[in-house]
Amino acid sequence: MDTHAIEIGTLVEIETGARLFVVHHYLDCDSHQTPLYCLSPRQEDTQLERVGFFNHSWLKGFPEESLKTPHRDLEGAIANLKDALSWLDTSDTETWKKEVRFHIERATEYLA
Description:
The chain is of the alpha+beta class.
């Protein structure tokens, strides 16, 4: 039975705000057998260096509680794109550019 709640290939966010992919599961050798995760910026980077040796490019030793799974908010993205479109009738070009950029950036954040 797998004790890891986050699947390999899942995008996660660490405490610094960096987003990386889960590429390997293992258990700590403490008495609790704590589930730990290896992370990489490349989703396909899942191969061990060799049997018994982690890939040297992985970041190792992340417990589940230190990882967040970012969610995509499609409704928020759509609302911000609609707000951007509402500025199309504005005659003030500079304000229009500023508002459209702002709402498109917000929509992108919701989808990241």
